[in-house]
Automatic annotation (TrEMBL):
Residue runs in coiled coils: none
Location of the region described as Disordered in the Swiss-Prot/TrEMBL record: 26-52
InterPro entries (UniProt xref): 26kDa_periplasmic_antigen, SIMPL/DUF541
Biased composition, class Polar residues, residue ranges: 26-41
Name of this chain's protein: DUF541 domain-containing protein
Biological process terms in GO annotation: DNA damage response
Length: 250
């Protein structure tokens, strides 16, 4: 198998807007308050980056035969061989989960006019392998492909719950700082002074991953192995804050 270096960039978006009114994405507005002062409503965005410490590798095993029973048997043999090799590599059964399983007909066009289409049976079994050590992605791919896997469908990098929480905290603080700076800019232009926070609208405690973008370049190597390089994972937080404000000098 040729050596491949996959440079991966992941983005995890932390959506913190629930029941929000007004314009988001950096909007700032001044609104009258029911009391003697005014309010300034702004949205803030912040982010925090961290190196991924969890990887997910998705591989597939496929076998074909002239009948369904043989196709299934061949598939089972290849899957068993792959899982045994992964176990010897140190990948536990709890790290491997089935994503898809199917046995079906595979029609091939006839070679000559007037002949019936050729019917073969295809058996497929797709797996998701979760790794807590991102440095092991390359060896896991090589082991799987060398022992029965017929495809590597996806490699993604993410964060453990503990590291994600730390980045979420930093992203929220950054978003609040951004909101405060916007509010003070608006207040200055309107001859107002920010006096405090009236309302902070946040919600949605769980991060929601976005699509992961991949930039892959193949590089030759003497050992013929696979290298997978991960980029940083960004956690992005958005907040909406309503500040109290009074006329400057009042």
């Amino acid at each position: 198998m040729s050596r491949r270096t996959l440079a991966t960039v992941g983005v995890i978006a932390l959506i913190l807007l629930a029941g929000c009114s007004g314009t988001l994405s950096g909007a700032a507005s001044e609104a009258p308050s029911s009391n003697s002062g005014s309010t300034i409503e702004v949205s803030g965005a912040g982010s925090a980056s961290g190196e991924p410490n969890r990887a997910v590798v998705r591989v597939g095993v496929t076998a074909t035969a002239e009948d369904a029973v043989t196709a299934r048997q061949r598939l089972a043999e290849n899957v068993s061989r792959m899982r045994t090799a992964l176990t010897e590599l140190g990948v536990g059964d709890e790290q491997i989960a089935t994503e898809y399983y199917d046995v079906g007909r595979d029609y091939r066009p006839p070679r000559r006019d007037g002949e019936e289409p050729e019917v073969r049976y295809r058996a497929s079994h797709d797996f998701e392998i979760t790794l807590s050590d991102v440095e092991r992605v390359g060896p896991v791919i090589d082991t799987a492909v060398g022992n029965g896997a017929t495809s590597v469908d996806d490699v993604s990098f993410t964060l453990s719950a503990e590291r994600r929480q730390r980045l979420e905290h930093r992203a929220r603080r950054s978003a609040m700082t951004d909101a405060r700076q916007k509010a003070e800019t608006v207040a200055e232009a309107a001859n107002l002074t920010v006096t405090g926070v009236h309302v902070v609208r946040v919600g949605g405690g769980s991060p929601r991953p976005s699509a992961v973008e991949y930039a892959a370049t193949a590089t030759p190597a003497a050992d013929g192995g696979t290298d997978v390089e991960s980029g940083p994972v960004d956690v992005v937080a958005n907040v909406e804050v309503v500040y109290n404000a009074t006329a400057t000098g009042a």
